[in-house]
Design a protein that fits this description.
- The protein is 40% helix and 16% strand.
- It is an alpha/beta fold and 365 residues long.
- Strand 8, helix 7 and strand 9 form a beta-alpha-beta unit.
- It has a seven-stranded mixed sheet, with helices on both faces. A three-stranded antiparallel sheet has the order 11-12-14, with helices on one face. Strands 1-2 form a two-stranded antiparallel sheet.
- The protein has two domains: 126 residues, Aspartate Aminotransferase, domain 1 (Alpha-Beta Complex), CATH 3.90.1150.10; 230 residues, Type I PLP-dependent aspartate aminotransferase-like (Major domain) (Aspartate Aminotransferase, domain 2, 3-Layer(aba) Sandwich), CATH 3.40.640.
- The longest helix has 25 residues.
- Bound molecules: pyridoxal-5'-phosphate.
- The site of pyridoxal-5'-phosphate has 13 residues, from helix 3.
Amino acid sequence: MVFGHQSHYTGRMFTPPSAGQRLHLNFNENNLGISPLAREALEGCLTQVNRYPDAPHAELVAALAEHHGVSAAQVVLGAGSSQSIHVIIEAVSRRAQDAGQPTQVVMPLPTFDAGLTASAARRLPVRGIPLLDNLEADLKGLRAACEDFAGQSIVYLCNPNNPTGTVVSSAELKAWVQSAPQTFFLIDEAYVEFVTDTRFEEADAWVREGLPNVCVVRTFSKLHGLAGLRVGYSLSTAEDAGLFAGFVPEMPVNLPGLLAARASLADTEFQRRSLEQTLQARDIVVQTLDRLGLRYVGPNGNFVFHELPASVGGNRSYRHRMSELHIVVGRDFPAYEGWNRLSLGTPDEMRHMTAQMMEVLGQVE
Ligand SMILES: Cc1ncc(COP(=O)(O)O)c(C=O)c1O
């Protein structure tokens, strides 16, 4: 039995999930598919993969520089923005080490893991600052942790944050960035396109303005749906970009990734559809949570962090109930045992998901 609409991008109709085809709503991926132009680029590149991708690398860098209004010397590609995060933490801490300064990495917790794993790889101490009661990052607490420390602080801040989907006020953050030139700010904007909170401003503007202590990382894994190809990048001063480039392997993104990313960047129609579908999916989830009377925060990403009714018995038990329905929802976040991060699929998928959610979460009250 098939339901709903045929996907313009995959050509498939929505079919309810089954044991052989589970519905994945756990990794903040893009279930819509990819841009047809990216697909064409991928299919067409097979005859070129015997060549090193120097020119496509330079072309993607140039296209990103134009897109963000910066110079090509300010853009450094990574094999996913996860690699960019590792590279930046390594490079900034080495620079501090060369200047005889210790480094600490300061971040709200919970947040995306790459900041923690990159710090652990370099044996850097992490100051994790718990979220506020409204689950937003505690800017004052983060700032106090930096002011306490004699040395180089690197603030790793996902805006919006994962797993919560909350943002911090860009005005407050920018004022802090400007008043603390000795602190380095690594701002992760993986979900930038999905933000609807009006307190948010894209931090690439701060790189354009020339703020020297800020670096922004972006990814093609979310809006563009190219997670499997691993394409991310950083924007910073040209001087810092030169430093970072020294820590990235030569041409970290392979030819298919470079060509697909460039094609997708040019495909504004796909980006528009991808955003529209995600926001529709988000509305479907939010309306269901409202009907169930469950709290949620944000949401400003392609996922919704929401409360579970106490009677469902915590996140693990909820995951188990959903997996019996062939739906995979988000993992545990230890400090938020009674919450779940639900990644958004297509609107058809979320209509199915929320009907199941009403059954599972509605009946336990
Ligand atoms: C905040 C954040 N940054 C970065 C990433 C990783 O992106 P990439 O696939 O570019 O490594 C994720 C992935 O979930 C994320 O949530």
